[in-house]
Structure formats: C-alpha cells, structure tokens
Amino acid sequence: MILTTLRQQTICLLVEELYEKNADDFRQMSSAQIVVKTLLDNPSSVRSKFQAKQLHAQIIKHEKNNPIHLTAVLSIYSNFELLHESLNLFNILHSRSSLAWKSIIRCYTSHGLSLLSVSSFIQMRVSGIYPDHNVFPSVLKSCTLLKSLRLGESIHGCIIRLGLDFDLYTGNALMNMYSKLEDLHRNCETRIQPATVSDEIPQRKLGNVCRTNLSSTSTSYDVAHEFERRMAGISPTVSLNPTISHKTQYVGEIVDQFGGISRGEMPSREASKVFQSSMNKVFEMMPTRDLVSWNTVIAGNAQNGMYEEALTMVRDMGNANLKPDSFTVSSVLPIFAEYADIGKGREIHGYAIRHSFDSDLYLGSSMIDIYAKCTRVDAAYRLFCLLSYRDSVSWNSMIAGCVQNGLFDDGLRLFREMLAAKVQPGYVSFSSIIPACAYLTTLHLGKQLHAQILRCGLDKNAFVASSLVDMYAKCGYIKIARCIFDEMELRDMVSWTAMIMGYALHGHAHDALSLFQKMKIEGVKPNYVAFVAILTACSHAGLVDEAQDYFDKMVHDYGISPGLEHYAAVADLLGRVGRLKEAYDFISSMPAPTGSVWSTLLAGCRVHKNIEMAEKVAEQLFKVDPENMGAYVLLSNIYSGAKRWRDAAKVRIAMKNKGMKKKPACSWIEMKKKVHAFVAGDKSHPDYDRINDALEVLLEQMEREGYVPDTSEVLHDVEEELKRSLLSSHSERLAIGFGLISTPPGTTIRVTKNIRVCTDCHTAVKFISKIVGREIIVRDNSRFHHFRDGKCSCGDYW
DNA sequence: CTAGGGTTAG
C-alpha cells in the first residue's frame, strides 16, 4: 500500500479530507492515483527529499510520464534544492510550462549558478513563456550575485512592462539588488561590463542600455524605464501579452513622474540632495511593505553610509506596526560600532534579550564587534563563549577584537582555535590576524600565514595584500613588501599608505615621496592616515620644506584638519633640523598641544643641545602632561649631556618621588622559528655565557677602534665602571650578540626593541656592524635603524 | 526577497 510507503500522517489526513470532498471523482481512481493527486495539489505537504523521490517513482509507474505531473515534481525538487534531480526532469520535458522554467531558475539561483539562472530566464522569454511574479526574486538575486547592475536594470524594465513591480517579493528583491549594486557602480567611473551570457542562447542581448540621453543624476531606476522605452521601439521577439497592456499604460505615467524628479531639473548644486537611490524609489512606490521590505531598505541605507535615514526608518517601522527583529537590529548595530557607542549597543542588546533573539548568530557577531570596539574585550569574549554555534564571522569578530586592542597573543591563539574547529579562514580572517604578526615582528608566523593565503588564492585581495605589505615592512623586509605591492592588481588608498609608511619607517623618504606622487597620479585620494605617513617620511629624512608643503596642501586642498600625528611629525622635523624656535611656535599654534607633541621637540633640544629651549618646552610639557616619564628621562639626559649633574639628579629625584618606574626594556630576535627575548642584564638565556664572551671580545675591539662608552644616559647612581657594564648588557646588545653567535658570518641580524634605542647602544651597534661586516637592522618603537659599515640609516637622529 | 566580521596611524 502506497499510503504506508509514504508513511506520513499529515498526508493521510489530507487525503482523507480531500476524499470526503471529492468522493465522486476519487471513486474512479486507484489509491496510488489519489495519493499522487493529493500531493501534487499540495506540494508543501511533501516533507522530505525522500518523499519527493517516491512521488516521482509513483508518477513514472502510474501516470506514464504525464508532463503536468512531472513538472509538479520538478517544482517540489527545486523546493528541496535538488539540482540534479530537477535538471534530469527539466531536460526530458518537451514542452516546458511556466512552472517548469520557474523551478529550474530558482534551483540554479539557490545553487549560486547565477549565469545559468539568468540565461534560463532569457531562454524562457524566447520560448514565449511569460514570467510571473514568482520568478523575478530568483532572477534578481542572480543579477545581484553577478554584480551586474545593467542586467538588473534590464530585468527591472521587464518587471515594469509586465506590471509586476507592485509585487511584494519582487519589490523586495529589486531593493536588495539596487542596494548592493548601485553604489558599487556609482563609485566606478566606467560601468562594469555586464556578464556575458552563454553563447548557446540565440536571443537579443539584455543590458545594452546606453546612458547618453540621461542626465548625470539619473538613477538605475530611470535606466530601467529608459530600457523599456527602447524595447518598445524594437520589434520584440515575444508579442505582448494582451491581458497586461493596461498595466503598461499605467507604468508610463510612473515613468514620467520619476523623470520629473531626477532628470536634472533641480539646480546642480542640489544634485547630491536630490539624488535618491533607486532602492529608496522602489521602496516609496511599494503599495504594501512587510518586515523584509523594511529590513532590506534599512540595511541598504546603513551599508551605503546613510546612517540617519536608516535609523529614522527603524522608528518609522513602528508606525507601520512592525517590530524590529534580528535582521533589523544586526543591520543598524554596525553604525553604533563605528561610533563606539556602547550605550546604544547595550540598549539593543537588552531589546534582543527581551524579544528572545539574543542568541542569534548575526546579532552575536555584531555585539562582539561593538563591545570590542569599545575596548571591552572581556565582555566580547564572554558573548563569544556563550554562542552555541560559531561561524567564520563570529570567529573573525573576536580575533579582530583582540588584535585591535593589542591582545596579539590572544588573537593568534584564537586563530589557531578557529583552524582546530575546522572553520576555514577567509580573507577577513587573514587581514585581521596579520597585523598581530606585524606588531610582534614575528616573521615566521607571518610567512606561514602568507603561505596559507597563497594556497587559498587570497593573495589578490586588497585587504590581505595591504596587511602583508605592512607586515613585511614592519618585519624589516621592505623589498618583499614592495614586491607584494607591485604584484597587486587593485591598490586602494590603504595599500599605498601601508607602502609609504613602510618606506617612512625605513627612512627611505624619496621612495615614499615618489609613491605618494604616483598615488595621486593614479587618482587615489590621500586621507588623514596617508598624510601621517608622508609627513613621517619627511620627518625621518629632514625634508622640512616638503613637509610644510604637504601640511598646507592637506589643510587647503584636501580639507583635512590636522591631527596630533600631523603636528607631531612637523614639530619633530623642525626640531630635528634645529629650527627649535619655529617648532616651539608651531606647537603653540596647535589647538591643544599634548605631552607627546612637546616631547618630540624635547628630543630635538637634546640633539641640538639647547638647554634653555629644553627647559621652556619641559615647562609647557609638564603643564599638560605631568606624568610623561619619557620626558623626564629626556630632560635628565639633556642635563647630563651638558654636565649639569645637579639638575639631572633633581629630575631623577622628581621621577622617583612620583613613583615612576622605567618601562622594562626588552629586545627580541627570531631564530629558527623561535622568538628569543632579552631584558637588560638578562642571564637566563641558555647561551648567556657564549653571548657574554662574544660581546666582551667585541667590546675590546670596539674600544681599539675608538668607541667610548657614553654613560650619560645611565640613570642609576652608580660607579662609572658599573655603568659601563650596565650599558653592555642592554637588551638590544644581548639580542645582537645572540644573533651573531647563532648565524653564519655575513647574515643580516634583525632585532626588535620595545622602546627607543639608547644613544650609547646606537653608537655601539654602528661599531659592531663595521667590525663583523654585517648589516644589523634594529626596529625600535618608532622606526628602523639599518646599521651597516659603521653608519646608521637614521643619520643619528631618532 | 532581508542581517553580522577586515587592511594603513609621530
């Protein structure tokens, strides 16, 4: 008995119910036929793929391949996203009904086969079948996936001509298409070519709309209408369906209505205000709107930077008696994340809890992000732990949250945990984690990640490539950084900035300047950070005039108001070249000078041994930042350098009284995929004795060549002899010593230090580089020092 | 037919 084979209680009930109603009709039928008819009349009652196949089998057995029944099965297969089964059926159908086409198109779309979906739609039109409102959502989704606005516009034209633009689902799909594609295309000067449609399909090409007749403020919506007008002039391969001609008339009125709004009749000054996205136009025209309509238009506005509009619409939703759901909320949360508005974030979190969708994965990822952006990594991590299921986005949010808050080791640990959880890292994962390697100078990890990126084929992604450029530059491999930069297909402003900053850090100012020029020639507009990079490059190379020029251009030509970093770079530069008075006046002209800006000038005073200016600067500095320890150290060094021991001592006593302790200096070096870290006077390393022996031999030779230890920066009040031994046990020297004994002659040594290199070590390393005939690269907290043949790339100013 | 995460910073 088939009923028992199908084994579905609800179906039995349905059959019984129908049997009651149509008892006469059913009397002639076999029980198998009854079941088949019941299921075909109620396709949604088929609950599993297995049942669908059983039904198919029964039809073959009892109905002799009745095409209507087979089409119904095809539709059911397509509901279950069974592509192969659907295709097999579709291919044996000789005459394909509207339902058959709709089913196969939907199936292609659900499998991401967008091109096949769209070309089937065209074939369907060619074969004389009229599309109905069920087919457009799928076709439009495919246009969206193909990123082809033109195709979407053409389809929209079709929809208008068939009078289907008032359909709810079609309208929703249209808004989604426009929200994803219109902004994308507006930002491109040349519109992306429409996807080429497979050659096998012999029909006119869609998407050949020429925009020359349209004003610059016309939108895709207008183009769709224009397309329809043109189509009306071309003899169509398919004759118009007479039942919908009155609708076409009506559409004509709407075309004119829109034409009036956006055909450039308003003054061009108002163009940006007048411009209304096609998405919003569709939304306004919709006769009925459901929750999905609101969510789509809110998300669209939020993603296109129209924050006010998006938030207003959330309020308007309430007037339409619709409650924000998890979709609404996770569309607007990124707005508050951008403003790091933890208050609004908590409010929404509370709303989600009250409406019991707080365990939603999308909401969870957004909440992790917003807590992390408000530096509440602990709260973010608690939320992350509470998620019952974690996808790549929730992992990425958590990893990025750690890295952006300086928790690099935690970020790396989570990245490994993600891999262990069998979640594939994508380009977002890599661009989130690579900065951790850049900050930590852990090149071996960076290289492993780079290898994985190449294996996944993600190396062309601009975000990933930019982070790699930065990572290699920060690990001292400026040439590799440049290679990756040159290999990039699309360079955005961030890629250029990363490369320029790389050159700046390495003191290659002229490379930085020429790149900045090239960037502008290629039409990439520099932003705040790009100017930080170029000013830093000038500052590290003493290019005063160029820096002042860039500073002025930034303010006047680009309308960027200078920030702390810009002031600091220029002040640093003026100080560096000895124009201390100018620097002083420049900083005084700032809206609110900070301790860090003043202390760059203090460093300039140290280099140029100007004590009066140093005291003036220090006075200003301690007014705004009395706890700036670096400034105390600098000032004390300045006094010591001028042999004003008494004043130097006073400063040190003041530091002591304030309970200030120097940040422990630490240097590290990578050796055979392992990081070896050293602090001053550190004897814990297993090779300590060998390192010490090597450094002693070197010290003797250095002194023969004229090295005199500069003990003026030793803050401890101890005997001169002890001071000298303290100097030679500084962390960078231990790390360099370890590098020398662990690598073959001639190998470049790369060391990273967490604070500024001291004056004496800087001199010492210059001697060492000459004696051992090696390049020694030291990265301190602000830049790279390339020591080679007794000289340093920083020109002794840092 | 609708939603979340990413690169540059004296």
From TrEMBL:
Keywords: Repeat
Transmembrane segments: none
Domain DYW: residue ranges: 706-798
InterPro entries according to UniProt: DYW_dom (IPR032867), E_motif (IPR046848), PPR_At4g14850-like_plant (IPR046960), PPR_rpt (IPR002885), TPR-like_helical_dom_sf (IPR011990)
SUPFAM superfamilies: TPR-like (SSF48452)
Residues annotated as signal peptide: none
Molecular function terms from GO: RNA binding; zinc ion binding
Similarity annotation: Belongs to the PPR family. PCMP-H subfamily.
UniProt name for this protein: DYW domain-containing protein
